[in-house]
Amino acid sequence: MAQSNSVQFQALPTFSFKPLLAIKDFVMLLVTAFIEAKEMEQQSRKTSGNW
Question: Which of 3, 12, 19, 20 has its CA 20 to 30 A from that of 26?
Answer without folding.
Answer: 12
